[in-house]
Write a structure and sequence with these properties.
By secondary structure, this protein is an alpha/beta fold. It has nine helices and six strands, in the order βαβαβαβαααβαβαα. The longest helix is centred in the middle third of the chain and has 31 residues.
């Protein structure tokens, strides 16, 4: 395996523990480094921060916003990436209507309503139907966001609002690639992933039934197996 580590990037208001199961499963064969996109005001700045923490040559996995940052990492340093996993993510730019919603959410978060914003506007969309009754999982996701805090939410929201359209980047991604999503992902739906997979030169597609936007938490062993398969590709 011509790579020194697997670098994983969590999504919006999710911390390093998002990849705990994968880190545990894969640690005997490859170091797993998790870097949350919390530093910087733009996707480009966040990508540069991740690159500064990464070894010279690495496999890269990004979930949701982490995938958006992964596209930028590819643009900045494609020669350093051996494999790429795009989990529950999108290559699309932010929609103008969504940008306005983000502004309102940030204002509320900075006014002390971060918990309410996370509960009302974000977390209910994250899980598939089977996982929504799992109170411990819901609390775990909420506590990640609360621990990161309102200022991280502000910076991540600003970065997402100004992100590039990465559809033009897809054809250039010539390393072994995994596109993985859940059938019940309400944030980045299945058809978006199928379209992305078709435009990637060397991609495999994995679709997880009864799974929402956070497969590393909802179906951790399945995700780990798919990552192992990706890393075995040459």
């Amino acid at each position: 395996m011509n790579t020194e580590a697997l670098v994983c990037i969590p999504g919006t208001m999710l911390d390093e523990s998002l990849f705990d199961a994968q880190r545990l499963r894969l640690k005997s064969r490859i170091p797993v480094v998790v870097v949350a996109p919390t530093q910087g005001q733009t996707v480009a700045e966040m990508a540069a921060h991740v690159l500064a923490q990464a070894p010279t040559r690495f496999a890269l996995a990004g979930l949701s916003m982490g995938g958006i940052v992964a596209f930028e990492i590819w643009r900045q340093a494609r020669e350093r990436i051996s494999h790429l996993a795009l989990l529950s993510t999108t290559p699309l730019p932010d929609h103008p209507q969504r940008r306005a919603i983000r502004d309102a959410q940030v204002n509320r978060a900075l006014a002390g309503e971060l918990r309410d914003v996370l509960i009302e506007s974000m977390k209910p969309l994250y899980l598939g139907r089977k996982s929504r009754a799992d109170r411990s999982l819901l609390d775990r996701i909420l506590n990640m966001g609360l621990k990161l805090g309102a200022d991280v939410f502000r910076r991540q929201s600003a970065a997402l609002q100004t992100r590039r359209d990465s559809r033009e980047t897809l054809a250039s991604i010539d390393c072994p690639t995994l596109v993985l999503c859940g059938t019940e992902d309400a944030v980045c739906p299945l058809d978006l992933h199928v379209d992305m997979w078709r435009k990637l030169p060397r991609a495999d597609l994995a679709v997880l039934n009864e799974c929402g936007h956070l497969p590393t938490l909802e179906q951790p062993e399945t995700v780990s197996r798919h990552l192992e398969t990706l890393l075995e590709r040459t």
